[in-house]
Amino acid sequence: MFESMPSLPADPILGLTVACRADTNPNKVDLGVGVYKNEAGVTPVLKAVKQAEAQYDASEASKAYLPAQGTEGFLAQVNDLVFGEGHSAVAAGRVATIQGTGGCGSLRVAAELIKRANSHAKIWISDPSWPNHASLLGSSGLDLAFYPYYDRDQQAIAFDQMMAALANTGPGDVVLVHACCHNPSGADLTTEQWQQLTDLALARGFTPFIDMAYQGFGDGLAIDAQGIRYMADKLPEVVVANSFSKNFGLYRERVGTISIVAQTASQADVVKGQMLNVARAIYSMPPSHGAAIVETILSNPELKSMWLSELDEMRDRILHLRQSLVKAIANTGCERDFSFIERQKGMFSFVGITPSQVEELKTAYSIYMVDSSRINICGLSSSNVAYVADAIASVVSK
Ligand code: PMP
After folding, report:
1. Is there a smaller number of Cβ atoms within 10 Å at the N or the C end of the chain?
2. What is the CATH number of domain 64-287?
């Protein structure tokens, strides 16, 4: 049965990590893979997580299955974190939230749910977007379409083009939007742009599907979720996939959530049953550990404040690295303006160089980034930022 299967090419980003690991240049820099790294180049376990794990371990009394939707304590904490305490839609019972397996698993369950609701739905994805969006959502069999999002000449959102493309949508359409820290561009919607997009959703009848994988990495927990909170208040239906991989550093624990904002509380109940049925047919029951840690942290004021300060630290480090890189490139006397990197949010930005310049950075300087010139800002550190800035200035000045 399997003998006729063709082998697939390696994932380009993972291939980059392997190539970087094999590189013996002591100055090598990995700006490829999308995980947070500290100054030492390590993706740490947060202190709040370590303490919560110790507490939870000591108190865990059973390994019997969790409730299929996750524990009530976890879900209540998540609703407060994602929608903000006392949100009108949550208070009205219009929000059905269940635990998911990371952001990816949550996106996939949401896509299967959308397909059940409307097998002719079309999902619009930003161009560019995180490549796995097309795989995760397209695997459900739904049609995909793409809307322009990033203007590579202006290094900013192509908002007018985006709105013009989405003006062609209708009630059967679902528009995937990144809540914050757009991957790969770092270009986020402003408050006014979220409002305009909401007005367009009302006018055209499309359903927004918001992917939040970096809450707290952009401007802070509340601002990063502003689009979700605003749309959930103004629109009849919103789909949200949320991940705790980055903001809690729980990557391998696979914890996230899916929330459906429905028109009424009774519709939300029906949708919840359907979501659980979708999940049952994929993985049956969610894993416990990551969600237990999130719940333990969010429900303990001391651990929560420790987590909040660690989250601030991660966000500040990213911001500081963005500023340092822009300054260091300017200090080389490079004529090209890279100040857009400072204005963008989260772990990623496009440097805005050609694939052959990306290649030159790799071969001549051992600086690794994907061909699109997307970099993970966290791969920088105070010890390599000048080296990277010199190298970028040198390849663009030729
Ligand atoms: N959405 C976006 C935009 C992402 O960048 C990622 C992770 N790279 C995810 C979702 C999913 O993350 P995970 O499954 O690891 O929680």
Report:
1. N
2. 3.40.640.10
Query: Ligand 1 centroid to 195 CA: how many Å?
Result: 25
SS3 173: strand
Ligand 1 pocket, mutate which of 101, 126, 129, 130 (most atoms under 8 A from CB): 130
φ, ψ of residue 122 in degrees (nearest 5):
-115, 130
Name the CATH topology of 12-44+313-396. Answer: Aspartate Aminotransferase, domain 1 (3.90.1150)
From atom 8 of ligand 1, which residue's Cα is the shortest distance away? 34
Q: Is the CB of 211 under 6 A from ligand 1?
A: yes
173 is catalytic: no
Catalytic-labelled residue, pool 30, 194, 224, 246? 246
Q: How far is CA 5 from CA 1, 2, 8, 10, 263, in A?
A: 8, 5, 9, 15, 45
The atom number, within ligand 1, closest to the CA of 130 reads 3
Identify residue 79 by its one-letter amino acid code: N
Nearest alpha carbon, ligand 1 atom 5: 183
Residue found under tokens 């100054």? 39
ipTM for the whole complex: 0.99
How confident is the model over 171-203, as pLDDT tens digits? 989 999 999 999 999 999 999 999 999 999 999
Task: In the chain, list all ranges with CATH 3.90.1150.10.
Answer: 12-44+313-396
**How does DSSP assign 248-291, residue by residue?**
S--GGG--EEEEEE-SSHHHHHHHHHHHHHHHHTTTSS--SHHH
Catalytic, 211? Answer yes
User: Strand 95-100 and strand 122-127: pairing?
Assistant: unpaired
Full-model pTM: 0.97
State which of 35, 36, 43, 183 you would mutate to test the pocket of ligand 1, scoring each by most atoms of that ligand within 8 A of its C-beta.
183
